[in-house]
Amino acid sequence: MSSAPLFSDRADAGEQLAESLLIQINHLREAGISAAPIVYALPRGGLPVAAPVARKLNCPLDIVVAKKITMPPNPELAIGAVTPEGDVLWLRQKRWGKRNDRLLQTAVYQAQEKAQAQLQQFSPGRPLVNPQGTLALLIDDGIATGMTMAAATQALRTKQPTQIWLCAPVAPAGLMNWLQKWCDRVVVLQTPKQFLSVSRFYEQFPQVESEDALSYLHNHNHPLITEN
Question: Is the confidence at residue 170, as pLDDT, over 80?
């Protein structure tokens, strides 16, 4: 496999994703499904990718928050994901044992607190939209395990959009069938067999600070307020 990056940065990935989605949405409309799209980003990294998509489709840009659940021995390893509302998705259907119950409850509580705090932080930039009956496009800058995407999809599903599409510039080839079961369509531009991490597929992949991420929401949904 070539180690050359696939995208120069998140904006480049978003522009390419927007072109692909526009074509597919036009095909959907030709098939008689005319639900209006709403773009939902997973903050923070998903917002620089989702913003060009929302601009191209001329539709609202919102967020869905889901946080990884991790355990103290390995805070980088996700064992599940949780939404601000407390919807939990575990990586594997297995019992962790009673001796770990307290650790798991603490891990879920801490992750849910982070999700609630981030949702509150981004609320000023969010649009007033109702996803019921719409085409919900859920976007991140890449999919590694798919846990937060799947948890976010569950949360969106309760709001009854007509369809949910999971969208990302890159995801592991081996994850595609699993992703498909959570949504109506998976739109991924590149599906390498050897993955390791999302960052290796970008020339530039800096951390997206909260202030910058929030500016994407403000600039897209409230441009007049931002200018003032």
Answer: yes
**Cα–Cα distance measured from residue 81 to residue 27, given in angstroms and rounded to the nearest whole number:** 33
Rg of the chain over all Cα atoms, to the nearest angstrom: 17
Pick from 203, 214, 205, 170: which is nearest to 189 by CA?
170
Residues 6 or more apart whose CB falls under 8 angstroms from that of 125 comprise 214, 215, 216, 217, 218, 221, 222
Token pair of 39, please?
Answer: 């773009």
Task: Name which of 105, 84, 200, 207 is nearest 151 in CA terms.
Answer: 84
214-228 residue pLDDT tens: 999 999 998 755 444
Q: Which residues contact 45 (CB under 8 A, 6 or more apart)?
A: 10, 140, 141, 142, 208
Specify the DSSP element, H or E, that contains 194.
none
